[in-house]
Design goal:
Blueprint (H helix, E strand, L loop, with lengths): L1 H6 L11 E4 L6 E2 L2 E2 L6 H17 L4 E4 L6 H13 L15 H10 L6 H10 L3
Length: 128
């Protein structure tokens, strides 16, 4: 995603970014450390969605939801809001969830310490 964001043109207005990224995970970072709390997940998902919608309402050209969405219902609110505000929606699937090698790579690379067994469980529930 870093390369994609770097490829975007500069914003037309200095006080208005050309792109914004919204990730529920960002709410779990405290003093630079990721501290997941399942009890906070509904609240943080709602806050993330609100920020996403606000960015579109402000006219940010590119607005990205960077969440793990295993089923359509998990990103439906983002998609519905984007379409209602006149945005083109593009869903990007990174890798192949059913590929065991890709699952191992995700376990190796993820920054939150999600173990391979959990990634494999998520892959089994994935709905394209």
């Amino acid at each position: 995603m870093t390369e994609f964001l770097a490829s975007l043109p500069e914003a037309a207005h200095p006080d208005k970014p050309s792109a914004r990224v919204f990730s529920t995970d960002a709410f779990f970072i405290k003093d630079g450390v990721y501290c997941f709390d399942a009890k906070k997940l509904p609240e943080y998902h709602q806050r993330n969605l609100c920020g996403f919608i606000e960015a579109m309402a402000e006219g940010t050209p590119v607005v990205i939801c960077d969440n793990t969405n295993l089923a359509h219902w998990e990103y439906l609110s983002y998609e519905t809001a984007a379409k209602a505000l006149g945005y083109e929606v593009e869903k990007v699937l990174i890798g192949s969830p059913g590929d065991r090698r890709h699952q191992a790579l995700c376990a190796e690379r993820n920054s939150h310490g999600v173990p391979l067994v959990a990634i494999r469980r998520m892959a089994r529930t994935f709905q394209p």
